[in-house]
Amino acid sequence: MALTPADAAAQDSSKTLRFIPQADLRSLDPIWTTAYITRNHGYMVYDTLFALDKDFKPQPQMVDSWTVSQDQKTYRFTLREGLKWHDGAPVTGADCIASIQRWAKRDPLGQKMAEAVDSYAADGDKSFTITLKEPFPLLIDGLAKPSSNTPFMMPKRVADTDAFQQITDPTGSGPFKFVKEEWVPGSKAVYVKNADYVPRKEPPSFAAGGKVAKVDRVEWIYIPDAATAAAALTAGEVDWFEQPPTDLLPLMQSNPDVTVANVDPLGNSGILRFNQLQPPFNNEKMRQAVLQLVDQRDYMRAVAGDEKNWQVCPSVYACNTPLASDAGSKGLFEKTNLDKAKALIKEAGYKGEKIVVISATDQWIVHNQALVTVELLKSAGLDAELQANDWGTLITRRTSKEPVDKGGWSIFHTWIAAPDLLTPAVNFALRANGEKAWFGWASDAKIEELRDAWFKAPDPATQKKLATDIQVEAFQSVPYVPTGQFLIPTAYRKNIQGIIVAPAVFLWNVEKK
Amino acid sequence: MFAYIIRRVAATIPVMFVVALFVFSLLYLSPGDPALIIAGDTATADDIARIRAALGLDQPFYVQFGTWLWHVVRGDLGISIFTNLPVTTLIAQRLEPTVALTLTTLVVAVSVAIPMGVAAAWKAGTWIDRLVMLFAVLGFSVPIFVVAYLLIFGFSIGLNWFPVQGYTSIRQGFLPFLRHITLPSIALGLTYAALIARITRASMLEVLSQDYIRTAQAKGLSNRQVLVGHALKNAAVPIATIIGIGVALLISGVVVTETVFAIPGLGRLTVDAILRRDYPIIQGVILLFSAAYVLVNLAVDVSYTLLDPRVRY
Predict the structure, then answer these.
(1) φ/ψ (deg, to 5) at A330
(2) Which residue has the higher pLDDT, B4 or A109?
(3) Which of B44, B156, B164 is nearest residue A436 as measured by Cβ atoms?
(4) H or E element: which one contains B165?
(5) What's the pLDDT band for B311 if we cut at 50, 70, 90?
(6) Do residues B253 and B189 make contact, with C-beta atoms less than 8 angstroms apart?
(7) Do the strands A384-389 and A355-360 form a parallel or antiparallel pair, or are they unpaired?
(8) Torsion angles phi and psi, residue A248, rounded to 5
(9) 8 Å CB contact between A259 and A239
(10) Does residue B92 sit at the A interface (CB-CB below 8 Å)?
């Protein structure tokens, strides 16, 4: 039986990168879903108009040049030469407009931007204009948004799909093409190098710079069992295991053919979220009490183990990013202030209301945090109970606004990747617009007022001040408690080189020696 | 016989209808909403409502069930909520690995277990008997995933004889296929073999105590002729029954085996679909499994007529 080219390439393993992704690729539409795995798929097959570099500054990616009018209301973009879709058609301004419009229907920052937009217009084949009703200083930042939903560019015929329906055509203009015929959801996704891609000349820097595909074929091999995945890496059946669990790291570190490294410099933040519609956490003093209890070191040991892989982060923004600070959090997060917590509980008039901490046993980061929280609450004399199911049940139950005795909840945990905690624009956990806020329904008019002002801030210094003010207010009204910032190391065979240090996984520039 | 088979096949239709209704109802009533998983953390209540409407999840139970059933009778099992691919496509992708794993496991288990059970019965009370019973106890007690990990550790990592994970279709070569399927078949087959060995032993012991066995021995037949030609044939009916019932064991065991060895089969497809509430896949696969189980039972019943000429339908 003759070999197909795919078989031949697969057999030439020096040109095929076999990668175990963090999750199963189920959806191909990075606008329809916020799942990080689909975002990562998006970075393989799509490109963006702008992208953040390692200093978190937006850089042109598909855009060659752009102008902004004196009144800051008209932006004109011109695309780079040679940009083509995977089917060979040229990328046009009309494609970009349709893509931006679709993204803005689902993404919160995009929605904010769309409120300010007066019109879009394609201007020739390679240019387009966005005209605003009022200045929107974050327009370029929005188009450079690194994480879900990332404003990936798609052909107009694809981007015209209703934003609440999935696309069926994965055509993009990125450095790799998706081979849909070989996709086995739950098992394997295959990409081949886009020979027509024109990379930028700059070196790669986070999501920006030149995206040079240095392998011919990439296979995402999803292995659900972590021990098997580690064994496959050890045996050389795969080249790179994106997120091995912490307890398997020593095993891989002892293998001379495997490198374990932190290639994500920012990591993720654990989150403890309150239900502010029901007692006792409808009382600000009770939330402040929990804030006093949280020692992030306990949470991080439970989640990330080795101290090399976590840090105490006393900020609502990702630490080691421009807006992070310890404003409003002095004395917090590095010890359990039990006496202060008890005083606040007394002040709040706690009457022994049951606190239900919901958890998901199939999400170890979530569950380990929940276990720590329940013990902390009990140590402060609170009536806390852990109710654990699976993630699907948790995210259903957290929509309930009912009391705990009618199926409601008091606290849940999750974790958010650092790119989604960079600014007040993307940090959805900071939203405090009550019933319209994220689950937990935090309500704080001052935070919302400061956030609105932040969008209109004319310069970085004002943005920084407003972001700091938001943080100070957040540690008063406590919409959530950050439980620490942790890294998830990655593990790869020693012959793999060129991995880009970034908060998301990018497979361009990676090669096998 | 032919009429009997037709009657049994026709009887699967109401059985599958009841199964479909039961599964659909369970999913409808159980906690979890795929729209929430799809919508993501930043979605508003309006977003979630729009997604539910787009997926038809806002319709009453009877409308959703009726619509789904209407498509099923026309061979359309629906579209996966998350992958947007037809359920029939997803099942077709995953069918071969599961069928291959199940068949090789059956072959391995039956070909090992029946001789062991026969030997244990023939040498009842001796060390052979005790060894077989020890195997049966261990096979039933040790979880499949433990066996799987041990096999991977020993034969894949240690000796490098077999790959750690994955599946290769037989169309890509018999040896590569065999290399990938061997360890999973052994892991899954151990429990199955333990069960068959025990039942074979018990059934054989009962038959070996019969007068006609003593007569056969007295007539000078060899041990082989007595054991295989007379005893095993008469003990075969309960063994065939347990092989059929054991298919249910295999279906549950397949999930664990496919997960540990990363085999892209139906078992994993089902579990993944349950965890993310991909209702069309769950419904489609359950229907398929129930049809398969009914047909396996039919095959076992038909096999009785081959094993025992006194059985006629």
Answers:
(1) -60, 135
(2) A109
(3) B44
(4) none
(5) confident
(6) no
(7) parallel
(8) -95, -5
(9) no
(10) no
10 Å CB burial of residue A494 (0-12, 13-18, 19+) is exposed
Confidence of residue B42 (pLDDT cuts 50, 70, 90): low
Beta bridge pairs of residue A416: A269
pLDDT tens-digit series, residues A238-270? 999 999 988 899 989 999 999 999 999 899 999
Tell me the pLDDT tens digit for each residue of B60-106.
888 888 888 888 888 888 889 888 899 999 999 999 999 999 999 99
Query: Which residues, 6 or more positions from B33, have their beta carbon under 8 angstroms from its beta carbon?
Result: A395, A396, A399, B48, B52, B57, B277
Amino acid at A79: L
Token pair of A163 as six digits: 């934003």
Give the minimum alpha-carbon distance from B20 to chain A in angstroms, rounded to a whole number.
22
For B44, the closest chain A residue by CA position comes to: A436
CA A437 from centre of chain: 18
More confidently predicted of A39 and B71: A39
List CB contacts (< 8 A) between B276 and chain A.
26, 392
Residues 6+ apart with CB under 8 A from B131: none
| Distance between CA atoms of residues A15 and A49, nearest Å | 29
Residue B18: count other Cβ atoms within 10 Å of its Cβ. 11
All residues of chain A having their beta carbon less than 8 Å from the beta carbon of residue B45 are 436
Q: Over chain A, what is the mean pLDDT? A: 94
Question: Does residue A195 contact residue A46 with C-beta atoms inside 8 Å?
Answer: no
Cα(A46)–Cα(A154) distance, integer angstroms: 7
> What are B16's two structure tokens?
């599958």
Q: Where are the beta strands (DSSP E) in A61-139?
A: 63-68, 74-79, 117-122, 127-132
- Greatest Cα pair distance, chain B, in angstroms, is 85
Q: How far apart are CA A502 and CA A266, in angstroms?
A: 8
CA neighbor of A346 nearest in space, from A288, A391, A394? A288
Q: Which helix (H) or strand (E) holds B89?
A: helix B87-122
Neighbouring residues of A211: CB distance < 8 A, sequence distance ≥ 6: A47, A174, A175, A197, A199, A200, A204, A506, A508, A509
User: Region A226-242: what's the mean pLDDT?
Assistant: 95
Task: Give the span between the Cα atoms of A417 and A106, in whole angstroms.
Answer: 19
Contact criterion met (CB < 8 Å) for A148 and B40? yes
Query: Pairing mode, if any, of strands A480-486 and A217-221?
Result: unpaired
| Closest Cβ–Cβ partner in B33, B163, B264 for A237 | B163
Angle, helices B144-151 vs B233-260, to 10°: value is 70
Q: Of A471, A391, A386, which is closest to residue A427 (Cα–Cα)?
A: A471
Closest to A139 in 3D by CA, of A170, A172, A162, A116: A116
Q: Do A28 and B84 touch (CB under 8 A)?
A: yes
- State the Cα–Cα distance between residues A462 and B60, nearest whole angstrom: 52
Please check whether residue A42 is in contact with residue A103, taking contact to mean a CB–CB distance below 8 angstroms.
no
The Cα–Cα gap between A411 and A197 comes to 47
Task: Measure in Å the smallest separation between the Cα of A384 and chain B Cα atoms.
Answer: 23
Place of tokens 């600014």: A423
Residues in chain A: 513
Whole-Å CA distances, B194 to A56, B185, B292:
61, 14, 23
Predicted TM-score of the model (pTM): 0.87
Select from B231, B288, B294 the least CA-distant residue to B75.
B288
Q: Are B216 and B226 in contact (CB under 8 A)?
A: yes
Question: What pLDDT score was predicted for residue A127?
Answer: 97
Smallest CA–CA distance from A394 into chain B, residue = B32
Which position has the token pair 């974790």? Answer: A415
List C-alpha distances in Å: A19 to A189, A191, A236. Answer: 10, 11, 11
Contact assignment for B84 to A389 by CB distance below 8 Å? no
Rounded to whole angstroms, the Cα distance separating A404 from A387 reads: 11
- Could you give the angle at the alpha carbon of A23 between the alpha carbons of A20 and A27, nearest 5°? 120
